[in-house]
Every structure is written in structure tokens, then in C-alpha cells.
Amino acid sequence: MLKHGSYVAVLLTAATALAAIAPATTMPAAPVETGDVDRLRVMTPADFQARTSVSDDALDRFATLTTTNGFVEHRSFGGHTPDDVFLRAFVEKATGRVSYQVYVTIRYRAYSWAQWDSANYETPGGPQAAHVNRIARLRTVCRRGWVCPRSETIGFAVAPSVFRQQAERYMPGLLTPWQFKVSARAGSARILMLSTAEIAGMLMAVDTYRAGHHLPQS
To answer: For residue 83, which phi and psi values (nearest 5 degrees)?
Structure first.
């Protein structure tokens, strides 16, 4: 079980019929086990809504909702802990306005930091560039000059309209992914994904929170 208990990217060739070929410098995340793909395929927006967590107290200006517990992979692949991907929503309690963030932890082994600092995500009109916020980075203690396990955590905002469009793509029993690509200054890139069921579940959770707190809906 992952530290964050979150849903990880699935190798698209194993989960969907997409046939796009990535450039040689692109490295898809390691695929999850077949059983995990099957579990993810049957998860519904209601499942993700029920597992969305809320952080809120009287002194917070924003309520934070996350899907970190939405999908938990049972095991790592090939002995390597896979990347972490989930959603966060920030609801301004005075107005009901909401912003969304894709939260990504990328794990790799290298002599130095890769510096993951750019992202593009799919939209009906083509790829859209996103501003990347660096959130955290961690290196396992190892000998000087050795290749060390590292992780970098980043986040990028996505417009609510994009997520509403993706949520409409959800089809019961099918894995309909929303794809995005993160790139590093060192030259590496990874194509990751979120399930449209997870996106729809987050939107439902946000609407429920706003309705329960008598905030405007949009």
C-alpha cells in the first residue's frame, strides 16, 4: 500500500485501446498489476466521492478535498514504488469558488535531481501547458557518488471546465483515462493519467460540500 494511499498511473497500452506512440525520451510509469487495473475499471464516481477526504476547520479560509484514498494499489511493480497521482480541490468558504490541482509524486533513481518542472494535459482543443508548482522533494540516504532513490512532488492547476468535460467522458465499466505529461529539465518525461471516474467523483464531492455549507454552486 502506498504511503499516500493514492491512485497511480496505469500503463495505457495495458488499460485502454489507445495506440499513440510516445517519443523515445518519454517514460510511461510502470503498469499496475492486472487485478488493480480491473479494480480501477469498475470504480464509479460515487466510489471516489465516498473516499474523498475533507480538511476543514473554523480558522481555514479554504476547505481542501483530496482523492488521495480514492484508489490504493496493492503492491509495487517490479520492486519499485510507482508514482503517486491524485486530485486536490480548494473551496473558498466565503464565496464557494473552487480551484483544482493535480498532485503528482514522481519516483526515480539518479545521481542528481531531475527537476520536474513542466506539464501538459489533454483538452478537446489539444494539449494545454500548465504552470508547475514544486511542492516537495526527498532523497533516500545513500553513499556519495551512488545512484540514489529520489522523489519529487509537484502540482499544477486545471480549469474546472476541463474537468467537467472529462467527467462527461466517464462510462461505467470502462477505463477512460485523462492523460497528462510531466517533463524534467534533465530530459526525462512521463505520461500519466487519472480516471474520469475519479475526476467526476471529485466534482460530486465538491458540489456536496458546497451544498452542505450553503455555498454558491457553479
So the answer is: -70, 155
Look at residues 177, 144, 191 and name the one whose alpha carbon lies nearest to residue 24. Answer: 191
The identity of residue 63, as a single letter, is A
Q: Where are the domains of the chain?
A: 12-201+208-212
pLDDT, tens digit, 9 for 90 and up, residues 98-109: 999 999 999 999
Residue 176 exposed, middle or buried by CB count within 10 Å (0-12, 13-18, 19+)? middle
Whether the CB-CB separation of 181 and 12 falls below 8 Å is answered with no
* CA atoms of 107 and 135, how far apart (whole Å): 14
Q: pLDDT tens-digit profile of 119-174? A: 999 999 999 999 999 999 999 888 887 899 999 999 999 999 999 999 999 999 99
pTM beyond 0.70 = yes
Q: Give the burial string for 137-165 (b: 16+ CB within 10 Å, else e).
A: beeeeeeeeeebebbbbbbbebebebbee
Cβ atoms of residues 118 and 104 within 8 Å: no
